[in-house]
Design goal:
Shape of chain A: globular
Largest sheet of chain A: none
Order of helices and strands of chain A: HHHHHHHHHHHHHH
Largest interface: A-B, 90 and 92 residues
Shape of chain B: globular
Strand content of chain A: under 5%
Distance between the termini of chain B: 49 Å
Order of helices and strands of chain B: HHHEEHHHHHHHHHHH
Number of strands of chain B: 2
Number of strands of chain A: 0
Radius of gyration of chain A: 25 Å
Strand content of chain B: under 5%
Helix content of chain B: over 70%
Helix content of chain A: over 70%
Number of helices of chain A: 14
Distance between the termini of chain A: 51 Å
Oligomer: heterodimer
Structural class of chain A: mainly alpha
Number of helices of chain B: 14
Chain lengths: 280, 298
């Protein structure tokens, strides 16, 4: 008899739990949903009251406009190129340096690593202006080089990979050395394959950071042909000539690639995000 | 290059040869560190003590830029206040929402990964995207006002009223960011040993006591991490301001980095560098706190 009220209370608790979970999830998705829906509407139906939750008529004209009348395809290509180049460079340089810091002995190793950790605290804004001047001195402003060369490696990436490589047993490396592998051979044949899960995290972080970066490309690039998606989108937003439905088409195009990457690599994303927090 | 017989100690030359490979492996990061980080850092510090437009050579003015910032620049003062309000508001909502959602997801629930995705999706979306979407939602005739209208609420000038604009930007930013905290807290909750709760239940501890004496103390390091990372990140808020409000109306959303950006655009590079160093000083305090706390733990 006394069991009855308890299960009743438990089940009503569970109902509340589900209502809150489902309700908040829907609330979280509404801005995304609304931007997709708006991008498929005619401009005159964007701000209607009551709101038009399903586009009627459903049109692709906004996408066609931003892709053909505006250089969004070009922005897209720029973003893909820069993000891939930077990510590739990180995988190679960060992992290589992390290997040296984690597994090789050389004078000054710990001191250099300590300086790197200290440098991690410096906010990017401090370096922004001199970095711009350096780019100008090299005649790199307004080129892909300005977006790629200062971003070939990151201290955070080296730190992340070092944590990961520390767990590789030394015996494996020694065995490869005895077999006549050079240090680079050990790196390529033993370390890289074992580091793949860590590299997956590194790829995600780097690709996401580069894809979403705004302040630096906004400052160092001023020719529209070289804009990345976020910079192009911000420009589209500020032009009076564009309308809300077109802006949302641009927004969806900017957001979609990251969302697709996320949905496919969700596990690595979340493990990567939490690894730093729980160990650090 | 031909070898020059410098009177270098043989030990050094030998060790360079012996250690050539590790040095080669770290060469690109070390050169990057020097050229793109350490040199700019020093240059920026020097320029902050100069009148510098970038066109003419810098003119040394001592601490004048800093004095100007703190005694004679009302907009910078407003920027400091706005940024601090942004940080305080965001940090009082974001991590709390993150913890609440993580506690819910830590129950046995169906479709857990669906909710987690919903909370987390905005985190990896670019801030420019998030800002353009919210700019539309906040429009005078936008979705939020239209929905509120059906409940009889008058139209709100989400981004056009100086009293509301900063709060609106906080809301959009919390929506974007708290999923990170959800995921971090959830992972931390799942790593708390089950035996602790079982022992507490045997001792007759209820849900509230378990939360207070087991969950919260176990989460402490993660809570510290989340707040420090959050504060450091929030103090650098820029993208949202740039897209949603351009610092307005009447400077009500001008933040430190946005103000720095406008000074950069005005070619007041020395002044902008001084702003950067003020920001740096604020962040160093929080980084120091984090280092102290994590050392305490170790």
């Amino acid at each position: 008899m006394s069991v009855q009220p308890k299960t009743f209370r438990n089940s009503s608790k569970r109902i509340i739990l589900y209502v809150v979970l489902v309700g908040s999830s829907i609330l979280m998705m509404i801005p995304f949903y609304w931007s997709v829906v708006t991008s498929l509407k005619l401009e005159k139906f964007v701000f209607t009251s009551p709101p038009q939750w399903i586009p009627n008529p459903l049109v692709w004209v906004n996408y066609i406009h931003v892709l053909t009348k505006m250089p969004f395809a070009r922005y897209f290509a720029n973003s893909v190129f820069v993000a891939l180049a930077v990510t590739l460079a990180h995988v190679f340089f960060d992992t290589l340096a992390a290997y040296a810091f984690a597994k090789l002995k050389f004078p000054g190793r710990d001191q250099i690593f300590f300086v790197m950790l200290l440098a991690l605290m410096v906010p990017f804004q401090v370096n922004l202006i001199p970095l711009y001047k350096i780019m100008a001195a090299f005649h790199w402003t307004n080129t892909y080089l300005a977006l790629i060369i200062p971003n070939l490696t990151s201290i955070f990436g080296i730190f992340l990979m070092r944590q990961f490589l520390m767990t590789i047993p030394n015996e494996l490396l020694d065995a490869a050395r005895i077999d006549g592998c050079s240090e680079f051979g050990v790196f390529r044949k033993v370390v890289l394959p074992l580091a793949l899960p860590g590299i997956a995290t590194l790829i995600i972080f780097t690709f996401m950071g580069t894809w979403n970066d705004f302040l630096w490309p906004r400052i160092v690039i001023n020719s529209e042909k070289l804009f990345t998606l976020p910079v192009g989108l911000a420009l589209l937003q500020m032009k009076n000539t564009s309308n809300e439905a077109q802006i949302m088409a641009g927004t969806v195009l900017t957001a979609l690639p990251m969302i697709i990457v996320f949905l496919f690599m969700q596990r690595q994303f979340i493990e990567g995000m939490t690894a730093g927090a729980l160990k650090g | 290059m031909t070898a020059i017989p410098l009177p270098l100690p043989r030990r050094v030359t030998r060790s360079v040869k012996k250690y050539a490979i590790p040095y080669l492996f770290i060469a690109v990061p070390v050169i990057s560190l020097i050229v793109f980080l350490l040199i700019p850092m020093v240059a920026s510090l020097w320029w902050s003590l100069n009148d510098y437009s970038g066109l003419q050579p810098p003119k040394f003015v001592g601490l004048n830029n800093y004095i100007q910032l703190f005694t004679n620049d009302k907009i910078f003062g407003k920027g400091l206040v706005n940024t601090t309000v942004f940080v305080l508001l965001g940090m009082s909502i974001g991590p709390t929402l993150g913890l609440l959602t993580a506690l819910m997801l830590n129950q046995k629930v169906r479709f857990r990964s669906f909710y987690r995705t919903a909370y987390y999706l905005p985190v990896m979306t670019s801030l420019v995207v998030v800002s353009t979407i919210w700019l539309m939602l906040y429009n005078r005739n936008g979705l939020i006002n239209t929905v509120l209208q059906t409940f009889g609420v008058a139209k709100v000038g989400w981004l056009s009223s100086p009293h509301v604009a900063l709060i609106s930007i906080v809301i959009a930013s919390v929506w974007q960011g708290f999923g990170f905290e959800t995921v971090v807290f959830l992972a931390a909750l799942q790593s708390i040993p089950r035996e602790l709760y079982e022992a507490a239940m045997i001792d007759g501890a209820g849900g509230g006591a378990q939360f207070r004496y087991i969950t919260l103390p176990s989460l402490r390091p993660v809570i510290v991490f989340v707040y420090i990372i959050g504060i450091i990140g929030s103090y650098q808020v820029f993208d949202q301001i740039y897209v949603m409000s351009s610092g307005g109306p009447v400077y009500s959303t001008t933040t430190i980095v946005y103000y720095l950006f406008t000074k950069f655009m005005d070619l007041r590079l020395g002044y902008a560098s001084a702003i950067a160093y003020v920001l740096f000083a604020i962040l160093v305090v929080f980084s120091y706190i984090q280092m102290r706390i994590s050392r305490e733990r170790a």
